Amino acid sequence: MALGRHDRSVSMKSTDPARRDARITERVLDDKLFEAFQVLSTSLFQCSYSARRKR
Predict the structure, then answer these.
(1) Does 38 fall in a domain?
(2) Which tens digits make up the pLDDT trace of 5-30?
(3) Residue 29 lies in a domain
(4) Domains in the chain: how many in total?
(5) The organism sits in which domain of life (predicted)?
(6) CB atoms inside a 10 Å sphere around CB 23
(7) Residue 53 and residue 55: Cα distance in Å, rounded?
């Protein structure tokens, strides 16, 4: 679920292949970071929720 984050279209016809690869890598890292943040926040929420229910 990418919240409209792929709207910034990467121009694949870039003359500099290194710059194009850097842009692609940046987008992949951005997606991984976003995914990791979602997983982390979800698990934190579940932990705090179950801890609250045990009291």
Answers:
(1) yes
(2) 554 555 555 578 888 898 989 999 99
(3) yes
(4) 1
(5) Bacteria
(6) 16
(7) 6
Rounded to an integer, the average pLDDT of 41-50 is 91
- This prediction has a pTM of 0.49
Contact, 5 vs 34, CB < 8 A?
yes
Whether residue 12 is contained in a domain is answered as no
Whether 25 contacts 12, CB under 8 Å: no
| Residue 2: both structure tokens together | 């990418």
> How big is the chain, counted in residues?
55
Domain for residue 54, yes or no?
yes
Helix (H) or strand (E) holding 27: helix 17-54
Cβ pair 49, 41 in contact under 8 A = no
Tell me the percentage of the chain whose pLDDT exceeds 90: 40
